[in-house]
Queue: 3 jobs
Job 1
Amino acid sequence: MGRLGHALLAALLTAVVVAPVFGLRLVREGAATLLEPHWRPVATAAAAVFAFHLARPWLARAAGRMRLPQLPALPAGGRRSAALLLAALALAWPFFGSRSQVDIATLVLIYVMLGLGLNIVVGFAGLLDLGFVGFYAVGAYTYALLYHWAGWGFWQALPLAGAMSALFGFLLGFPVLRLRGDYLAIVTLGFGEIIRLLLTNLGGLTGGPDGIAGIPKPTVFGMEMARRASAGGGTTFHEFMGWAFDSRDMVVYLYLMALLLALATLFVSSRLIRMPIGRAWEALREDEIACRSLGLDPTRIKLSAFTLGAMFAGFGGAFFAARQGLVNPESFTFIESALILSIVVLGGMGSQLGVVLAAAVLTVLPELAREFAEYRMLLFGLAMVLMMMWRPQGLLPMKRPHVELDP
Amino acid sequence: MSAGENAAPRPLLQVRALSMRFGGLLAVDGVDFDVAPDEVFAIIGPNGAGKTTVFNCVGGFYRPSSGEVLLDGARITGLPSHKVARRGLVRTFQNVRLFRRLTVLENLLVAQHMQLEHRLLPGLLRLRAYRESEEAARHRAGQWLDVMGLRPYANREAGNLAYGHQRRLEIARCMAARPRLLMLDEPAAGLNPREKRELQGLIDRLRREFGVAVLLIEHDMNLVMGVSDRILVMEHGRPIAAGSPGRVRTDPRVVKAYLGEA
């Protein structure tokens, strides 16, 4: 089959795939629903694919000549200054950005937190976890439920949310971490779904599909950030500071808190990777049998990665609940797990700065692409495919080594 | 088949009537031997004789079908391999198993994991106990790199080392884990003659200077005869001869097993 044959076949396949989507449209006419054929877009798509395939060898040559820009590899020392610069920039951001920009930046920081947490599990320890969002949900619901049933505030609930997620990570990890690779991925995928379904179906406790609303925002040293103190008596933050009330303050405050949490996560996880436990994670990723031959207990080491990763998801979840003021199971679907995993992979498995960068890219990109409406996810997917072809090792590949010995 | 005629009062490792069955195949059938502390003991035999299976049973990678393994008089049969390793039985692998993307130094640090301050809080807060433990670990790793002549490669990725160096690094990694019995699975495979001679010197030195007993599986007869105190010969999963190198070399059953029925 020559080039022409290939092109014809590709065009035919395109027509078959595109026809049900664009070629046949359902049109309501009063009570009846009619099927209305639109063959123009199908023909256009088939023709485009045909032309593309005919021109492919020529295109390939052109693409070969075209050089994609190379991201400079940062030297080890440069990473530190880059990180500091990034932190300074992040700190200044809310005082320049618009309200919605600051809000999106807060979302980015939540994903940074989640990405860094999952990075411990996937990037460092090499355990493919497709149910990470389950721990995020546990954290969010821990705060929501503690508020709803016991009236706890954010700061009281935060440590417990982390602890609760860690506990879930520990308990779920215990039976499954004997599994390897694909099996582990499938089981964790199942766990993520089980947690979401439990939250949906335990209606009496969790509010079912409607979730829990009216979750209070975090207080500032015990003071509310609201126009009026809710239950009389208390001083609000703006009264204490002697400012006029501005609803923007809350957005900035949430942002700064997310920044604090994200920086704490970054700090802790970059210490962890330099500690014996971090080396053990990496060693385990490289060769489990060799680890065992040196006296390292693989189950315990995996469990520690799983538990710590889950803990960060729990903190992220509690913060998410506070920011939204509302939690429901819809926020914790598999697509969320997939997004967090994409952040880790796109950033470069194990690379922390990469995770930060990827979290920003993957959160801001869909926001920028809002005008493309339903094609948004398509563009997102396309960007991921191109990225993985261009730079499979991620935006900022992990840099080793961590310790050096003088020769 | 008692191979302990002139062994030290209490053998470090005792293997008693060890058998391992895989389905219908009896891979190891009634193997007995002892290894004294500071002894170099070799197991030889044609391919498929069951040598590596013995290794895997002793090291806890397989659970033997019957028989028992004692370390210092305590039963270790059926313990998981990492627990066996913690008791001082550390091994290398036929196909080198390094942490390839970790540096040479880091490979040696991982090996010391159990000896280090590996709790979370001291590490996160960089307490003094932790910093000292890490410093000591780097120092010990450096010493082993010196012994093995690998110091110039300390900060290289282990996977990028030359093959002979990888073999040596694997032994260094075992030693960093502070074994009492070092188990080497075909350490000379793929080495050139000069490297083989160096390996022989190294095994000798580890035993003399660092007081470690060595259990060795090897095909290279020069190396085995040169370095071992005693040798066990296996064929088809069964022990066929044991004793000093001189005795084994002249044993008619061994000659037959190696040269075939002429």
Job 2
Amino acid sequence: MTKNSQLIERLAPWIAVVALVVIWEVAVRVFDVPSFIFPSALETAQALVTYAGPIAMHSWQTFWTTLIGFGIGVAVGLVLGFIVGSSRFLYNACYPLLVGFNAIPKVAFVPILVVWFGIGSVPAILTAFLICFFPIVVNVATGLATLEPEMEDVLRVLGARRMDVLLKVGLPRSLPYFFASLKVAITLAFVGTVVSETVASNQGIGYLMMSAGSQMRMGLVFAGLLVISAMAMVMYELFAVLEKRMTGWAHRGQNR
Amino acid sequence: MSAAFVTFDDVSLAYDESGNAIEDINLSIHEGEFVAFVGPSGCGKSTFMKLCTGLHAPTTGAIQVDGEPVAGPLKISGMAFQNANLLPWRTTLDNVLLPLEIVKPYRHQFRKRREEFVGWARKLLKTVGLEGYEDQYPWQLSGGMQQRASICRALIHQPRLLMLDEPFGALDAFTREELWCVLRDLWEAQRFTVVLVTHDLREAAFLADTVYIMSRRPGRVIERRQIELPRPRALETTYQKPFIDLVQELRAQIGEVRST
């Protein structure tokens, strides 16, 4: 009995995917939507197979630019978060600035980046970076800034320097926040890359969808969409697993 | 009786303009003495601890520890609070070892002498009844066990001054009495100086040599009471007449403080 319900729980996401595809296919057929407006699931699958080669090439481009942008985002986010979170003064000083920066739509940066770096991979990488580092900064800084004062007293009385407290207590404490932010950041990084590719690149899934769209090949456009979301989902899951492994202590009691 | 180990001379502290948190504290604690501070909540007992360990400087007056004026955090002290504050990503053993990674001179010897330090920690954990739990994480322990570990952490670097801020306040009555005995035994064995801040009069009377009663804010010491009960004290003492009378007297004094 319990074994069965466990199995169903595991299969639930796949059942949802299948259901969505079926609804999609049926809806398109029933309402007889022309394929240049909204292709059916079957047509999208056909496009995936027919153009497997170009799609693979462009997804690879999107994938590695995203990862580089994300990597820079993680490095910068960690360092900036550490600096901002390590002192009350900097926290108060920088927070409004960061929020203000985050409120700018990152698409608006793409033309600037194109002027500076030309079209191609560089603007895509930088857009991915710009869009994804903010949640990392905020999470790391918050984790550091919300240290229990008593814990600090225990260590300070031993002659601990601020850096000791941050490294021994602050940083490990903010790790769950950090890993949680990675999951958000990686999906945002994909958004950044694809946005930049649609505007300023002749490679990548974003470019592929743009040019397929201009030729009314909607099957291919949707195939592109599917590939992006699949890549983002896989990366998200990867970081979810990593989070569980690295900070199991923060999820205690949930999987027991 | 040995010379004064901790002395307070006319010490007052005001955190801000709203007035003194504690006022005109004059007292001296000799080495190896077990001192308890009781008083209504908000009377500045925790402030007293911060002053004593050098985490906060007094507004007026002077504090000396071990013959030296206090100017900055006092590394010969260990602290434990009501909340055990163990780090959830470290095992109990590693939590207890934490001070040795920070306090001088141990921090520079930590890698080389790790085996030895682990030995100290295991021994200490054994004396408080945590043998076999060294590799458990704090969140796998009960509240009482966490508090035992917290006291071990406060003692691992062999401090001469142990500061306890309501360490048993969040525990159930039975666990609390058990831990009184643990603390009593540790103190009997090592004879460090203890400053215990508490709300519990029985706790203060059972453990301490001297009980200071503090007034409401601004906190002043209004009574110094020597506890003459013979040592070592058994837990049963606390249910006998002389002890009960003593606690009742203290209770009456606190009652006076509260009503004024």
Job 3
Amino acid sequence: MSDAICVHQLCKEYPDFSLQNVSFCLPKGSIMGFIGENGAGKTTTIKTMLGIAKRTSGSVKLFGLGFEDHEKEIKNRIGVVFDECSFHDTLTAGDVSKILGKIYSTWDDPLYLRYLKQFDLPEKKKIKEYSRGMKMKLGIAAALSHHPDLLILDEPTSGLDPVIREEILDIFLEFIQDEEHSILLSSHITSDLDKIADYLTFIHEGKIVLSKSKDEILDDMGILKCSIEEFDALDKTSFLTYRTNQFGCEVLIKDKMRFITRHPEMIVDPVSTESIMVFYARGKAV
Amino acid sequence: MTPSGLPGLMLKDLLNLRPTSKTLIVMLLIFGIIFIPMGNTMTVYFILMIFAALVPMTSLTMDDMAKWDRYALTMPVTRKDIVRSKYLLMVLLFGVAFVISAIIACVSYYLMPANATPFWFMFLVGALGVFYGSLLLPLLYKFGSEKARYMMFVLMALIGLLLVGWFALFGESFPGDLFLYVLITCAVSILVFVASYFMSVRLYEKKEF
């Protein structure tokens, strides 16, 4: 199985922030959730990946091709949606189609009009009169209408109500029915990712802390609840991060089954995407 | 050859400038009605050329506000295409400004041959307009539309000084020499325009969004 995205040791230095050796691969035909708290480096990673910001070092391959030699080919095959609408306020949805039709060689006008209808987006209304949800849906319609093989979405569902979010997630699931299609979806709304992601990549302070299939993560990882004394006494090879509270200690462990066989008396709860994110962002390293 | 995306980028600018162009046309009509009957076509040429130099700047500001550039860079267009589209827009606008000026010039020669502004003056003003626009765009790319807006006024004063200086130096020349000086001024501003394009491309290649 080939990869739609392969990022290797990507670095980007800013005066006050840096991406450090970011590596992950997204296999074709799947959805990857890219998770991290605000400011963890999700948008920077996406921008650096696409060459919108210049990388300091590392390599990025989309569909096995490098940007150095295949920039236009790659960009014809991707659709990108940012967290904010990128179209000018004075334009209408109809204008967007005229513009993008001249930019993408594979622009499909009937398909775009179908999306506008499906999303209830008026073609002649100015974008400045659209609600936030409508703007997001317009961005998604535009990103889908040149038949991309890969969608890259930076927080497309943030700030939207659950009904619209559900609607948008359905569109993504429909898109992924084609096995050649893939999606990279950055978000901090973990419930959305629980619903649709096949792979999860967690980023924290510019570093990838975990990148695996969702099933593997949910099967292997667990949250151990114990007292501080127990925590001190235990062998810490399976521990990743821990948090203390007034009742004792919560520890994120990487091999739940092995740990339980060794310590059958201990309580190990299942993990959720949200708890992993919080553990990495707020927990202390062992 | 793969399509460059340039027509799409330019169409985006033209569609975006619809509201601006309406205001400009109204302003032009007002100025035209005031100045042309006074025989003061010079001022109208001047205004036209300033419009032509400032409109690409407006379009850049609008791109900044919409965060368009980072989105455009995900499309099959290169950074060079994006800069090129702005320079082509400027050429197009000066073309339009020039045609309107020429029409005004012809009409005023026909109606009031005695106090019509000489034709060469139109070229001189056009050359200074191109010069002004060529200085503005690299500044916009370097400093962003917010800061460059103030530099615009400083530059405008500079252009005013240049015009006054030009007249002090060459204004009283013999017609033959005058023609030569106008020609040289035009050539210089075209050179500055070309240099400005390459400079903007270099600045834009380094820009991050």
